[in-house]
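User: My instructor asked us to take a sequence, write out its structure as tokens, and then describe one feature of it. I'm not sure where to start. Here is the sequence I was given:
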Amino acid sequence: MDTYEEDAVQLHGDEEIIEVIDLNDTEQTSTDDLVEELEDVDFAEAEGPADDGAWETEDEMEAEQDDSDLTFIKHTGSVFCISLDLVTNNLAITGGEDDKAYVWKVNNGEVVFECTGHKDSVTCATFSHDSKLVASGDMSGLIKVWKVEAKEEIWSFEVGDLEWLQWHPCAPVLLAGTADGNMWMWKIPSGECKTFQGPNCQATSGKILPDGKRAMVGYEDGTLRLWDLKQGSAIHVIKGYDGHQGPLTSMECSKDGTLVLTGSTDGRAKLINTSTGKRCFHGCDSRWRPQSQSLLSPEA
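Assistant: Let's start with the prediction itself. The structure tokens for your sequence are:
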């Protein structure tokens, strides 16, 4: 067996290299190009204390010192979501069980404005890429978009039960996943709409890839679909051996969008190659079980 440098990958037994992915081979696309392409879319209208084995009593926990610099206390129920503005990090939006969302200043807790009119717990709240707009969505499916500078609502729409809500990384375009399996995409504030029909089950998680042209969506039945946002078609449908056996709960992608890491109630995490729609390897419990050496090469 050949010997590589000290940091090279060593193969043992009958392990086989299935595929090599060059993590540095990425295509750069300008923000202006992505925005122009979306215009062409055919729309219909802290580390804790050491564990000494003892249980803390309720009185002891209440007596712990609060070292926070600021506490925002306007909500009267559980807080379900929070997001910082992406440009200055000076503003935050929070949504909660009290059917309210607030935009407020992080330096002093002053309320800039309240996102009024929600009918159920606000579970989604997020700033647009340029922090000029903010979206809030509640469990009933009512979504509202607000212009931050003017402190006014500019658009609203009601879908089925809302699962997730996300802004496009470089355009005023909003995506949402719902319990009926659909992914929705709107231009804001015109409200022009496009829908992406998934299986007949919840679209439980979603992620727009950094190229702004594709989105990965995970569903309750464990499948994933990689969508072409311009064409409205599924590039890959990932299921069976490469998919999950339970609802998708979370996902994140690499900086260049070539890899998506997914998590599910089946107890597994899987790394998906977005070019092929195949998994690279998956994790089970606290162990990683490599299915290939696809991410590594002697040059890595």
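For the description part of your assignment, you could build on this observation: The chain has two helices and 21 strands. Try explaining in your own words what that tells you about the chain.
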